Amino acid sequence: MASLRDTVKDYQDELRDGIAWVAFWKQGRSWNAEYFHLDMDDTLYPEDRSRLEEIKSTDPAAVILNGYYCGHLGEDMSLDELTAGVRYHYENSMNDIDGFIGTHDDRLPPEVIEEARAAAHEAGLPFSEKPYRDGEDFNPYVFDGRQSYEDYELMHRMMNEERSEQMAEPILSGYLSNLGKYTEGRPAGEWVTFPTTAEHLKEVFDRIGIDFKHYEEWHFTEFQSPIPGLTEHLSEYSHPDELNYLGKLLEMQFDDDREKFIAAIEYGDHADSLQDIINLAQNLDCYWLYPSVHSEEEYGRYLVDELEEPELPEEAKKYFMYEEYGRDASINDDGMFTEKGYIYNNRNTFTEWYDGRDVPQEYRVTPQPPQRSRPDPEKVEMDAAAPGQRTAQTAEQPQEPRPVIPIVLTSEKPAEKLKEITDRLEQGIAELFDSERYKEYLKVMSKFHNYSFRNTVLIAMQKPDASLVAGFSAWKNNFERNVMKGQKGIKIIAPSPYKIKQEMQKIDPH
């Protein structure tokens, strides 16, 4: 059997600190005690409320006391004075458990609950008995018993419907316009939703007249997106392939990633161009986002209470300057308070997945210009060619390469061997200069004496019987190659010369 003095002795530190609340009750002739802590919002935890109701059922005269808030108690009192104070409260029914629960219970009165439940159901909304305050996290996937099972199911049906509506809303769309018709004062355009498909974009090109013959340029005149700030970083010359790339990345984001992406765009350290935003969508692990933090004071409290940076005793928290601490921490983080919460760059490696040039093949949707058929070069009328210079030529079959014949030396002394090799080389060079192949080479080179050796070789490879290169008018009339706006001439890409190697049987007497 424990006396009141012995029980108070065990809990005298809690009574003097004034942080915890200590319940005292009698069971038979024995005194008992137990301490409790309130939640951050000064409310009882559900399990503590149940425990206090159990204590009250054991001893209806039980009291719950705090050395800071209750009279006849104090931090400077001796053990005997504390014992006398507890006895005074118990015998005079001061600070009983019923009053304490009523003050710190976050449950609403039964009549208010039923009235609110009826109003919610009449409006077709789910109802929860627990009131959630601003900034308080709510986990809809945990059934805490504060809702009926029917309300819980209704809440999830409404969540799914809302999510479906959000998914049906276009992530990104742009008004694609025919630039040629736009400059002519005959605008033609159509809204395109991204991500899209190559087939759909081809149909849009056809409808707005981009045929790559008369009109082959386009631009975007407007963008729309439910993501705040996104369209501000897009330009009229944004490429459809890049927009489709970004649209696919955004389509794959979960809700948490989408919130962080929105905050990161506002943060702005990687949002100067479409290339930056594409890379940003793939580097969200480089940022920390605290959705419930929107001010310096809230950030300071989050660091101290949730992350325990620094770790403080409960008594010291009463005097701690949370706002100043949060301000200093946000400056050190180089962070920002956004509508989606507090965000800062955690200095993880930011990977440039997209270089701004090569969009991955799976995201390319822009139609390509059709390959134009080239007229037969033999039928092209050369601008400056004389009629006698153009004769019908028949394709010559490539000649078989000459076999490799090794030099067989008959001399024995080194000096004589060297002289024999030199004589053979002189003989081979003389034969080359007298050959028909060398005559053909000189003939070709003489036709294009104003051209470089490389260009002459290219011409000879493509048309051995060529006399003159096609002039500008021939390129325009016969090949449909015109000087583009802003250019000084047409660009012609010729193939590089190449050699064909063929393995030959070596003739070796040995």
Automatic annotation (TrEMBL):
It comes from the Bacteria. Residues 359-403 are annotated as: Disordered. It holds the Pfam family ArdcN. Residues 373-382 have a biased composition (Basic and acidic residues). GO terms for molecular function: single-stranded DNA binding. Coiled coil: none annotated. InterPro entries: ArdA, ArdA_dom1, ArdA_dom3, ArdC_N, LPD15. This is Antirestriction protein ArdA.
